[in-house]
Amino acid sequence: MPSLTSFLFVLVVVLDLLVLASSRLRGAIRTVALQGALLSPLPVLLATGAHQTIHVIALALGALVVKGLVIPGMMLRAMREASIARELEPIVGFVPSLVAGAIGVVAAFTLSGALPLPIAERHALLVPTALATVWTGLLLVVTRRKAVAQVLGFVVLENGVFVFGLLLSDFMPVMVEAGVLLDLFAAVFVMGIVMFQINREFSSLDTRRLSSLRD
Amino acid sequence: MIRAAISFVAFLALSPLLLGVVNRVKALFAGRTGPPLLQLYFDLHRLLGKGAVYGVATTWVFRAGPVIGLAAVIAAGLVMSFGGAPALVAFPGDFVLFAYLLGLARFFTALAALDTGSSFEGMGAAREVTFSSFAEPALFLCLVVMARASGALSLSGMLGDELAAAWHVQGPALLLAAVALLGVALAENARIPVDDPNTHLELTMIHEVMVLDHSGPDLALVQYGAALKLFLFGALVVRLTLGFPIASPALSLLAFLGGMLGFGVAIGTVESTVARLRLVRIPQLLVGATVLSAFALVLLLR
Fold it and tell me: Domain limits of chain B?
């Protein structure tokens, strides 16, 4: 069934791979913003019961604004302030990290069928997409050197958690979802301050500098 | 059978026109009038009337290269299905033959380039072979995706009427395969994100540098073979994206030719708007295409 929903899920995974392959931070941030925007209609598309329409629409709008506009905007601003344009030498190169991401995607799609879920699956591609996106975020956080790219990985990770949370959106109260979004917001905020400090201290955003000791 | 023969003749006759369309689109983007649409036909006619010059270092391999290259590409056209028409030759597993006939053409082009003893041509041959080894897994994964989605093992079946049903069931996977195949087509035909067909700067050339020493009729064979190869890949991409069945053969052929025109415009647009990649970034593009097609296969298999 090639519905709009499956196309969206597949596109989200393709964007994961695109972020892994891109060295330009501006492009990567835009890609993640697009991914967040693509995720936002999913609560509406996957909604089953009509009893929570307002909740579902609020969730979709909140995701669109926070993931598609606010966080990418903040990151672009941080990038401008720190005047860095690209990730030059990641710990794992772009082709190897793309291959590692692909292995994660394949593993997510083949293994997710074996996972026991407490409730029925909403969509056949939901769990594998969530796992693949979380894996991508993890790879970005671990393998990139620039703080902006690491924050980007954290945002991707949260996108995956968001997809997984859709599984439970009938049970999950608004407050929990708002909490998740707030967490992310606070994390990006704190990372922004940290980035500013790293940048002022070392006039570079290279996190390797943090491990060298000084008086 | 008649339908297959008409499509095959169209393949042989219209391939140079496709390159004319690409060049015209590029000229329009650049604000030029551009060469006439039939320029490649004039070039081929002119080159066939000339004599060939052979270097003293070359052997029969150099003379055989263009002939075998063109013959292999035409033979690959025999098993290819154009726009849903059955191929002239079809048997289960002919997509492997298709891929390796193109491989044979490339092998002899590279061999002829090495035979000249020129260091530039050797460099071009090394690059061409390296990048095609990245493109081959992507091409095969795409073909396997199509075979799996349509349940057929020959190109005629894979690109036949079952394709429409396959789109209904496996739309996302086929779309991914089409995108990956477009990337492979750009790389295999030395188009711009990978290689610039117009450049004559030795340090950046990949495909063009290999045929520098060919002249006269040999160069005509090489250029015609390149046009045929672009048409073959175009036919694959166009049929995969426009997979709907059309009852009337004439209308179906028209739709296919319209699709090929669109393919030419798309290639010209890509060439005019995208910058050429640095050599070290090309494997990344092709690995990306491989990853996309592997993902498509995973979507099909789960």
Answer: 2-301
pLDDT of residue A43: 76
Q: Which of A6, A95, A109 sits opposite B172 (nearest CB)?
A: A6
- For residues B138 and B86, is the Cβ–Cβ distance under 8 A? no
Q: Is B83 exposed, middle or buried (0-12, 13-18, 19+ CB in 10 A)?
A: buried
Do the Cβ atoms of B291 and A99 come within 8 Å?
Answer: yes
User: Is A8 at the interface with chain B, CB within 8 A?
Assistant: no
Residue B145 vs residues B31, B207, B298: alpha-carbon distances, Å: 40, 28, 9
Which of B133, B295, B297, B300 is the best mutation test for A, with the most CBs of A within 10 A? B295
Which residue in B171, B288, B298 is closest to A110 by CB distance?
A: B298
Do B169 and A105 count as a contact with CB atoms less than 8 A apart?
no
CA distance to A24, A196, A214, per residue, from A90 (Å): 12, 21, 25
Q: For residues B296 and A98, what is the distance between their CA atoms, to the nearest angstrom?
A: 16
Domain ranges of chain A: 4-211
Q: Residue range B111-134: average pLDDT?
A: 88
Chain A residues touching B175 at Cβ < 8 A:
7, 10
State the residue for tokens 């791979």: A17
**Is residue A172 very low, low, confident or very high in pLDDT (cuts 50, 70, 90)?**
low
Cβ B181 vs Cβ B142: under 8 Å: yes
Cα gap B231→B151, rounded to integer Å = 25
| A21-31: burial string, b at 16+ Cβ within 10 Å, e else | bbbebeebbbb
- State the alpha helices, DSSP H only, in chain B: 2-29, 39-48, 60-79, 94-115, 119-150, 155-158, 162-188, 216-241, 249-273, 282-301
Tokens (6 digits) for A175: 């407050």
Per-residue pLDDT at A193 exceeds 80: no
Residue B278 to chain A, least CA–CA distance (Å): 13
Helix or strand holding residue A161 (H, E): helix A147-166
Residue A1: partners with Cβ closer than 8 Å, 6 or more residues away: B169
B/e letters for B266-275, b = 16+ CB within 10 Å, e = fewer, are bbbebbeeee
Q: What angle do CA B186, B191, B194 make, to 5 degrees?
A: 80
pLDDT band of A1, cuts 50, 70, 90: very low
Whole-model pTM? 0.84
In degrees to the nearest 10, what's the CA dihedral of B142, A128, A182, A29? -10
**For residues B166 and B147, is the Cβ–Cβ distance under 8 A?**
no
DSSP B24: H
Tens of pLDDT, residue by residue over A24-57, are: 888 888 888 898 888 888 877 776 665 567 777 7
Residue type, position B230, single letter: L
Nearest to residue A94, comparing CAs of A149, A151, A29, A164?
A149
Other residues' Cβ atoms within 10 Å of the Cβ of residue B23: 21
